[in-house]
Amino acid sequence: ANAVLATALSLQGNTAAAQEQYRAALGVQPDFEPAIGSYAMSLAATNRLADAESFLNERRQRMPRSARVLAYLAEIKSLQKDSGTAQQYAQEALKLDPDNKEAMVALARDHYRGRRMELARYALQAILDGFGTET
């Protein structure tokens, strides 16, 4: 319930209250990945990229097999203009979960931010089409 309220507050522009509700949701369920990502991106949206990175690194320590946490971390590193690390984290996430859409989107966004348009387009097309015959 807290995560839904946080999303509604965020959409209304009440970032501080939304962040409080994300923290409350994580207090109830610390491994709730959607709230982890939403909270980190909320921090990033308020120019608190270092706080978002620290938060995600702490969650990564608790959840080392979480592809989603790595994908969220890739997005933050991309926003920090650290494309090499962003690409590395996204690739690690895809090794853990080859179908992880968050990691694929993080790759595409990082390519876009770096003005590597063909690679961004390729990454987005791969999300739509899937990789190989199993998808």
Short description, anyone?
The protein is mainly alpha-helical and about 140 residues long.
Low-confidence stretches: none
Order of helices and strands: HHHHHHHH
* Helical content band: over 70%
Estimate the strand proportion. Answer: under 5%
Report the sheet with the most strands, covering strand number, pairing sense and barrel closure.
none
Number of DSSP-assigned strands = 0
- The count of helical stretches stands at 8
Q: Termini distance? A: 33 Å
Basic shape: globular
Mean pLDDT: 92
Q: Radius of gyration over alpha carbons?
A: 15 Å
Describe the model.
The longest helix is centred in the first third of the chain and has 14 residues, at 15-28. Helix 6 runs antiparallel to helix 7 (101-113). The protein has helices at 2-11, 15-28, 33-45, 49-62, 67-79, 83-96, 101-113, 117-129. The protein is built from 8 helices and no strands. Helix content is 77%, strand content 0%. The chain starts with a helix and ends in a 6-residue tail after the last helix. With 135 residues, it is mostly helical. The radius of gyration is 15 Å and the shape is globular.
